[in-house]
Design brief:
Structural class: mainly alpha
Strand order of the largest sheet: 1-2-3
Largest sheet: 3 strands, antiparallel
Distance between the termini: 89 Å
Radius of gyration: 29 Å
Strand content: 5-15%
Order of helices and strands: EEEHHHHHHHHEEEEEHHHHHH
């Protein structure tokens, strides 16, 4: 908050003002923080006074940014953690998730606390409070706090990590059956797809046939398709940045590019769709308004609006829900089409290492753990091949 008072003119008649800017209270002493500045000017017009006050407020704000790091509070550190780590190294989806949990309780509890003063006990109280509402939400907040304090130690702001002795909240594991379409349901689905919008048809088929994530589907560009080798390079994911309120083309979930194979019979259908997209682009002329990449070049998304700009990937999920309802298909989520790819591949004897690579899992143990109930069934079937010897 800023205020001012007029000063007596100098001996030569130059008027001036004394500006006061208040910045709350010192955390340690409790004293009110005030900054003062005397400004001489040619005239005391409202415009000149406002300009002088604004310039001093900016000056004070910049001084505030250089506050000693050992006195930084949790809220200030989180801002820098977001800028210097989350926005640079993590995906948009993860950033959105972290921001959700920060605004959903973490900052309310810790924002104004001096970072160095936060002890394990303070965090225990926070976690226990959040557990009363939802254990799963408390776990996710625990993950965010663990990342924040790990960076505070890594960057030299803290000697001890208050999260070190804090155990992750426990939740009773409940076995959740994976939902997916079996072979007969997939046959029915492919019959239905002959009657739906072509874009939705291609999106759904690609997901079932390759196991793509929805963001990877949205981030696919035409030049990533190799029609000679029947492969697609998956190296980007399209996400909606809730903070910036816009679509962002970023890295895949595990930040690794991969090449997925597509069936021979589908490649011609995909090629036909690409040709149609090129025809629409040519017809639109100047109305074509695609997303522009960091290099200043147009991005040729496979799935986009009529003007070339990409659609929010979630629109594919919304279209899927409408198709399921209209054609009375078994109700599963769009993401579970990815599971349908894996389960069908396993049932046909595809090596699980290939399935891991196709799905983009960073660790084969994740693939095995996710589809353990299916691999157990195949293990049982495998042992029965020796029956003919008995």
């Amino acid at each position: 908050m800023a205020s001012y008072e007029e000063l007596k003119p100098t001996k030569t008649g130059v008027p001036g003002i004394k500006i006061t800017v208040e910045k709350g209270y010192d955390e340690e002493t409790g004293e009110r923080l005030r900054f003062f500045k005397t400004v001489r000017m040619k005239t005391l017009s409202d415009r000149a006074i406002k300009k002088a006050i604004t310039e001093f407020e900016i000056e004070v704000a910049n001084k505030d940014k250089t506050v000693k790091l050992e006195k930084i509070n949790f809220g200030n550190f989180v801002e820098r953690w977001m800028v210097n780590y989350v926005e640079i190294d993590l995906s948009v989806a993860t950033k959105n998730d972290y921001k959700y949990h920060l605004d959903g309780g973490i900052l309310d509890e810790l924002k104004d606390r001096k970072l160095a003063s936060i002890k394990t006990f303070h965090l225990v109280e926070c976690i226990n409070k959040w557990k009363e509402n939802s254990v799963s939400m408390a776990i996710q907040k625990y993950v965010v706090l663990k990342s924040i304090f790990a960076k505070a130690v890594e960057w030299g702001l803290l000697k001890e990590n208050p999260m070190k002795e804090l155990k992750r909240p426990r939740v009773e594991k409940r076995h959740k059956e994976l939902e997916f379409y079996d072979e007969y349901q997939l046959e029915r689905l492919f019959e239905v797809l002959e009657h739906v919008n072509k874009r939705h048809k291609i999106q759904i088929k690609l997901t079932v046939l390759t196991g793509l994530r929805i963001g990877e589907l949205g981030g696919m560009r035409i030049e990533c398709i190799d029609f000679n080798k029947n492969t697609i390079l998956i190296n980007k994911s399209l996400q909606y940045d809730k903070e910036k309120k816009k679509l962002v083309l970023g890295s895949t979930k595990n930040k690794k590019a991969r090449v997925v194979d597509i069936p021979d019979k589908f490649i011609e259908e995909l090629k036909s769709y690409v040709v149609e997209q090129e025809t629409i682009k040519n017809k639109m002329g100047r109305a074509w308004s695609p997303m522009i990449g960091e290099d200043g070049e147009e991005i040729n998304f496979l799935f986009c609006r009529d003007n070339g700009y990409p659609q929010n990937p979630r629109s594919a999920a919304a279209a899927w829900d409408r198709i399921v309802k209209k054609y009375e298909l078994p109700k599963i989520s769009f993401h579970n089409l990815r599971h349908s790819y894996a389960s069908y591949s396993l049932s046909k004897g595809v090596n699980i290492k290939i399935i891991q690579e196709q799905l983009g899992h960073s660790d084969i143990n994740l693939t095995i753990g996710t589809y353990s109930h299916l691999t157990e069934r195949d293990k049982s079937n495998a042992s029965n091949i020796f029956n003919n010897l008995l």
